[in-house]
Amino acid sequence: MKRLAFAVALVMGLALVGCQKAPEKAAENATAPKPAAEEKVIINGIDGGGFPPYAFVDKEGKTVGFDVEAIEWIGKKMGFKVKHQPVEWSAIIPALEAKKIDIICSGMSATAERAQRVTFSDPYYKVTQVLVGKADSKATLEQMLTTNKKIGVQRGTVTAKYLEDLSKKPGMKFKLVQYDSSDLAMQDLPVGRIDGSGMDNTIAKEVLKKDAKMKVIGTFDAEPENYGYAMRKDDAELQKKVNEGLKLLMADPFWQELKKKYDVD
């Protein structure tokens, strides 16, 4: 009987101690500092072959460019960090859809075909498609397209799609040679493996800066395209932030500084 009484007393004593310590623990939890919320990081997919002046990796291995600095500025204003991931251009939209990247800020034309798969930001630049050739070439654009010349182009681009469609039209006689990047096409042009290279006028501008032995032979008869930042259709939150941030950026003096820095007119 005494043992039973002692056991009951012991249980009640432990319960009392537990009741006394619980408020102390609750008080400790109430006063403990909460960990700071981590800043959201979005992955920006850029052309793996490089697309100066919009997005490319410089000699020091740093990702730079007009679009790179633009989206980083927008991120600071709208509360997210940006990391850049090179992706083969022909696979960049599938990478976005597969959530391997979150956005494409790399000089992408906002075409109707692409808009079926992604949502574009508000436009920020307009481009045309041109043919670059050797400076001493006497051929006109029409002659380049109708006399069995070899025309290079970066696969997966608006220019590639335009030339693919153009090659099927009556009277067109040229061989289309596709490359993983415009840089590779421009390596083949001086040595005669191709006779010309189709590209955005923005790329052509960079080419002519580096190589005085090249020129723009002509501008293709294609509708000008707007550049925009591509995002997944279901990512409404990011779309809202990017458009708001882009509007702020284009109204800020930094926008003109960027255009001057990268010679984007």
Task: Set down the secondary structure blueprint.
Blueprint: H1 2-31, E1 40-47, E2 56-57, E3 63-64, H2 66-78, E4 80-87, H3 92-97, E5 103-104, H4 112-115, E6 118-120, E7 125-127, E8 129-134, H5 141-146, E9 149-154, H6 158-166, E10 174-179, H7 182-188, E11 196-200, H8 201-210, E12 214-219, E13 225-227, E14 230-232, H9 236-250, H10 253-261
Parallel strand pairs: 1-4, 1-5, 9-10, 9-11
Antiparallel strand pairs: 2-3, 5-14, 6-14, 7-13, 8-11, 8-12
Helix pairs in contact: 2-9
Task: Walk me through this protein's architecture.
The model is unreliable at 1-28 (pLDDT under 50). This protein is α/β, with parallel strands linked by helices and 265 residues long. α2 (66-78) packs across α9 (236-250). The radius of gyration is 29 Å and the shape is globular. 41% of the residues lie in helices and 24% in strands. It has two domains: 40-125 and 227-261, Periplasmic binding protein-like II (D-Maltodextrin-Binding Protein, domain 2); 129-223, 3-Layer(aba) Sandwich (D-Maltodextrin-Binding Protein, domain 2). The chain has a five-stranded mixed β-sheet. A five-stranded mixed β-sheet has the order 10-9-11-8-12.
